[in-house]
Amino acid sequence: MPDLSRRAALAAVAVLALSACAADPEPSPSPSGEPATTATPTPTPRATSSRSSSPTPEPTPEPPPPPPLEWDIDSGASLQAIVNKRRPLNPPDYAPQLVAVSISQDGDELVRPEVDAALVALDQAQRAAIGEGVHVFSSYRSYATQSSIYQGFVNQYGQAEADTTSARPGHSEHQTGLAVDVVGTSGVARLSVAFGGTAPGQWLAANAWQHGFVVRYPNGLEGITGYEYEPWHLRFVGVELATAMTQSGVQTLEEHLGLPAAPDYG
Ligand SMILES: [Zn+2]
């Protein structure tokens, strides 16, 4: 296994490099040192300088404290509110200030103003990259609307099945005004897991974070998010948090923020 041994060698080098850093803080000696104190003649002949000649070690730099949680994840009004099956919207019937979606859309789509601005930038970037823009087919849903959608699923499939597909009222990201369901302007693979394999789906998965969006329900992580793969569902959290999550290498907000998994309503 040459690849493995090469990895092991690289890892060993990395460990050496790290331990070298850690073991060798080496306080930099002041180049001039302490000026020698000359004992001036005094009536007391035993007088000697009390100045010590040993150099004062420079304080070892403290490791930086863990970054504070910079985001309000609890308040429904926060752009970083985390809503899942274990975390209802706060308050459950929260209703945000909304504006009409500016980019291609089905009609009557509403989002928070910050989301609309980000969607404009996202649409332009995707268009420039792959020649196809972003189309929004679902966005804000009120508590009342979510209630009727959820009840419809329950009536048709039963509660257990409904809970895998539709959020209970007060638990939907769509009620925050920060979530949108999108497809490319060509409309290919609308509301389908196949969207994840299309050019827009792949571009969004790789780049949406640059405009503050995350693909909220990634493939295979329903044990954490509570939802099956939805490559079309984007959640706006702001560029800072989206970037931090992407850089951390985890795919869910729950993992990045150290929140418990939310596979069900508990
Ligand atoms: Zn959605």
Broad structural category: alpha+beta
Main β-sheet, in a few words? 4 strands, antiparallel
Which architecture of the domain at 99-257 does the CATH hierarchy give at level 2?
A: 2-Layer Sandwich
Low-confidence stretches: 1-52
- Described by the principal axes of the CA atoms, the overall outline is globular
How helix-rich are the residues, as a percent range?
25-40%
- Spatially, the strands of the biggest sheet line up as 3-4-6-5
Number of strands: 6
What radius of gyration results from the CA coordinates? Answer: 28 Å
Mean pLDDT: 84
Notes on the protein architecture:
There is one protein chain. The chain has 266 residues and is α+β, with helices and mostly antiparallel strands. Helix content is 34%, strand content 10%. It has eight helices and six strands, in the order H-E-E-H-E-H-H-E-H-E-H-E-H-H. Strands 3-4-6-5 form a four-stranded antiparallel β-sheet, with helices on one face. Strands 1-2 form a two-stranded antiparallel sheet. Mean pLDDT is 84; it is low at 1-52. The chain binds zinc ion. The site of zinc ion has 5 residues, from strand 4.
